[in-house]
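For practice. Supply one:
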Amino acid sequence: VHYEIGARGALGSLAYEAALFQADVDDQLVPFEDPAVPGRRFFRNAGRSRHRGVELGATWRPANALSIRGAFTMAGYEYVDYAVDGERFDGNTIPGVPARFLSATVTFQPAGTLGVALDQPLSAETWADDANTARADGWASTDVRAWALVRLGGAGFRPFASVRNLFDKNYVGSVVVNAAAGRYYEPAVGRWVV
C-alpha cells in the first residue's frame, strides 16, 4: 500500500517539485547468498517493511544558456517484521539503498548546438546486510559531458563525449546485499571516457 502527496510549480525562473511518500510492504523479496552454493542468488520474504521519505527537485534557469538542476532524496527503508533462523531484524534499515542521495547538474548550452554539463552525485553510506553490521561509505563522483547538435538534411545527430569519475576516486559503487563470506562490496570504475 503506497501513499504519496506532492506539489510542483514555478517561481519565475525556478521550477520545483516535492513529494512525501510511504509504502507499507508485505512479503518484501530480500536477496541473499548461501555459502554452500557460491555465486548463486536466492530470495526470501520479509514479513513486513516500511519505506518512507521525501523527494525534492528544482531547476533554475538564470539565463537562456545556463540551467542548474538539483534533486535530493531522503528516505528510511526499514524492516517492521522480519526474522531469519530465529534472528530478528525488526527496526533494521533495509540494505542496498542509501538514506540520502543528492544529484546536481549544471548545463551550459550557449549556441543551441554546442553544450557542456557537469554532473555531481553524492550518496550517503549504504548498509549491505540485514543485520546492519556491514556498510559501504558514502561517496561523491564528478562527471563531465559535452555534445554538439549536427543536422544533415532533415535528420539531426547529437554526438557526445563524457568523462566519468573525473577525479579518479576510489569508492564502492554498489553492494551485493547479504553476500556470502563478506563479499558485499563492488568497486566503482575509475576515470573513464565514453
